[in-house]
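ok so I'm stuck.
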Amino acid sequence: MTTLYGRARPATTLSDALTEAGLTDAVALLSAPHAYRVARVHQGDCRTYDDSPEPLEAVFDARVFDGQRELRWLCTAGREGHAVLLGEDPAALPSGFGETLPDLHAESTLPSYYLLWGHPQPATGNGTAAWTALSTPRIGTLHVPVPPPPPGCRLRLVAREYVCVEPRHGNAHVAEERLLRIEPTELAEPAAGTAAPQTAHSGAPAAHRTDTGTSDGTDPASGRKNDG
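replied:
not stuck anymore, here's the structure
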């Protein structure tokens, strides 16, 4: 059994949530009305591929992860929003971040993968050694804060699904999902009769979205999925 712990912080800015979470080296998926960006977070500061500060004023939805924790933030009014911090180690969740959420006890966990659109190539510009440019004619170019993969490989977003069992009827279901990392993967042609890999739009999960306040059954007060 695996336990997922969480803390919630209402009425906070994204900048304050990043600082209070104490994320020192993380990846941020940032949604704004005019753009979708991926940034690197270091000690509460978001940086783009050219090492410029990433403006957060227009961001309305963010998911930030470092492999051990995930921070979710959704704007609710003005520049303030609801933040949730999740992780399997309760000691990694700062006590001052906010109120404690009910523990989620999962019977098992499953890996989940989302293939990122775009062909990877080294990013160009200042300080871009650890960045990859994902390019496709239909979407454009998105810079991702990971080193370019080996030749012939693509990039994928890795997540962990938490499988719980409904106590009354014994039905198993995915109660939660936590983003972990972006990594290279070999892309092989699917065999006949098998499904193609899930594809994410330049870093955004294509399914099982668990952002706070989404229409997939997530509780806006806790940032977690409803069991029903």
